[in-house]
């Protein structure tokens, strides 16, 4: 095949993948699973690594659609199919697909309660890609390490979890991408939550919440990090109250309500409900 024909075939395959992804957005998970399957089947055996990567990415799209529909066993199978299709080749497009497939499989294993398998897979992903990230960027590597911190805590190792979260911040804290910064801030939020529950480390947890708020304000698109700021504020109020600093806690809760009262985000709404309940209790005491 000539270079021109190959490039045209690649471009057409990518456009079709984008169309199927749009179908997922427009019609929900059920509307896209079959289309992802057809696209994967068309290119899975192609000799061109790029087209095989399109097939793998289609399987990844199918897997996320299944995960969204709580069909976790099928999602795991689809992620595993994508991972096997990408193989261990060094081709950058296939390597990229493998990273995203392995992260997705780790996520679903964790969600399904297969914590040991998730931890092994995510550690392998992190170690295999952290020094040479996949073509599309570092997001699956950041997210994998964030999940590993939660798994360390699940296995009863809070110090290891804190160390992992601190590594997320050290490695990725200066990356100017909002999705990466969201992971960095959530690593700090998780670290604060662990510290607050350890003896005599409540004050450190409050300082970490302040660090979240300071970091979130640095970025030009910091409005997209509103949920992380709301979590940090309400957590700070919680840790202040548990330390007996009721007046400071009330001030922080009021700040959260004032700042995010008009937000349209379920996670923020949940936090504001908590803040208002806390304020009601504090005002009554």
Please explain how this structure is put together.
The chain is an all-alpha fold and 285 residues long. Helix content is 78%, strand content 0%. Helix 3 packs antiparallel against helix 4, helix 6 packs antiparallel against helix 7 and helix 12 packs antiparallel against helix 13.
Fill in the keyword field for this structure.
285 residues; 13 helices; mainly alpha
User: Could you state the order of secondary-structure elements as H and E?
Assistant: HHHHHHHHHHHHH
Backbone CA Rg: 22 Å
**Tertiary shape:** elongated
Provide mean pLDDT, rounded: 92
Count helical runs.
13
- Measure the end-to-end span: 78 Å
Task: State the low-pLDDT regions, or none.
Answer: none
Oligomeric description of these chains: single chain
What does the main sheet amount to?
Answer: none
Helix amount: over 70%
Q: In percent, how much strand structure appears in the residues? A: under 5%
Structural class: mainly alpha
Topology readout:
Layout: H1 3-27, H2 33-43, H3 49-68, H4 72-86, H5 92-111, H6 115-129, H7 139-154, H8 158-172, H9 178-197, H10 202-216, H11 226-242, H12 246-260, H13 266-284
In brief, what are we looking at here?
By secondary structure, the protein is mostly helical. 78% of the residues lie in helices and 0% in strands. α1 (3-27) packs antiparallel against α2 (33-43), α2 (33-43) runs antiparallel to α3 (49-68) and α7 (139-154) runs antiparallel to α8 (158-172).
């Amino acid at each position: 095949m000539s270079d021109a024909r190959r490039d045209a075939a690649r471009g057409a395959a990518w456009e079709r993948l984008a169309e199927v992804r749009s179908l997922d957005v427009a019609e929900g998970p059920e509307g896209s699973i079959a289309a992802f399957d057809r696209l994967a089947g068309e290119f899975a055996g192609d000799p061109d690594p790029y087209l095989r990567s399109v097939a793998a990415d289609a399987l990844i799209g199918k897997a996320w659609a299944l995960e969204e529909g709580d069909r976790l066993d099928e999602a795991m199978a689809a992620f595993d199919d994508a991972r096997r299709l990408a193989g261990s080749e060094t081709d950058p497009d296939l390597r990229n697909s493998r990273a995203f497939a392995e992260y997705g499989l780790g996520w679903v294993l964790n969600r399904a309660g297969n914590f040991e398998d998730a931890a092994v897979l995510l550690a392998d992903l992190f170690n295999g890609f952290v020094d040479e990230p996949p073509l599309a960027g570092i997001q699956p590597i950041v997210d994998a390490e964030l999940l590993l911190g939660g798994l360390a805590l699940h296995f009863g190792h809070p110090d290891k979890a804190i160390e992992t979260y601190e590594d997320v911040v050290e490695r990725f804290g200066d990356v100017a991408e909002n999705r990466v910064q969201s992971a960095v801030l959530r690593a700090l939020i998780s670290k604060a939550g662990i510290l607050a529950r350890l003896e005599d480390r409540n004050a450190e947890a409050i300082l970490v919440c302040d660090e979240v708020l300071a970091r979130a304000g640095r970025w030009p698109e910091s409005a997209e990090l509103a949920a992380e700021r709301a979590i940090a504020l309400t957590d700070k109020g919680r840790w202040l109250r548990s330390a007996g600093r009721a007046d400071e806690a009330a001030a922080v809760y009021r700040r959260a309500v004032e700042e995010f009262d008009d937000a349209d985000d379920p996670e923020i709404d949940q936090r504001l409900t908590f803040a208002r309940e806390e304020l009601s209790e504090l005002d009554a005491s």
